[in-house]
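Exercise 7b. Backbone tokens:
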């Protein structure tokens, strides 16, 4: 079982290697079947933030985790999008979703702890976006 303290450990690790400005947290749990204990939904975020604060994170760093890092990254993404392409709102056909580069959440099932951990990694997608934006 993954616990909230382990999530805080991951935050500390990312902060140490990439900086607090590289971390953001979102609440899109759609399609996820397993959650770290103590982070079953967004109502538990205050306990995570308190744990990070107790570990020495500053209010400014935590504001970034909760809001400003995410906004900075998506403003950058939108700027690139707006300068290079027009939005395409067409739905992607399901046969195109079913390939190694895309994830079809409707087909996921929780079978083992390892599977559950892989599913819970979708929570961390925002970290990837923020880390990538540092190199854009």
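Sequence design result:
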């Amino acid at each position: 079982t993954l616990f909230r303290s382990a999530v805080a450990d991951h935050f500390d690790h990312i902060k140490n290697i990439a900086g607090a400005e590289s971390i953001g947290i979102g609440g899109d749990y759609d399609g996820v079947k397993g959650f770290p204990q103590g982070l079953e939904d967004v109502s538990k975020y205050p306990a995570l933030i308190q744990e990070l604060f107790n570990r020495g994170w500053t209010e400014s760093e935590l504001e970034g985790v909760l809001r400003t890092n995410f906004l900075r990254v998506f403003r950058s993404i939108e700027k690139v999008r707006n300068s290079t392409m027009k939005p395409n709102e067409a739905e992607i056909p399901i046969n195109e979703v079913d390939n190694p580069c895309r994830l079809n959440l409707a087909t996921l099932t929780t079978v083992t702890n390892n599977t559950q951990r892989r599913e819970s990694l979708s929570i961390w997608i925002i970290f990837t976006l923020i880390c990538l934006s540092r190199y854009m």
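Instructor comment: The chain is about 55% helix and 0% strand. Residues 109-136 have pLDDT under 50 and may be disordered.
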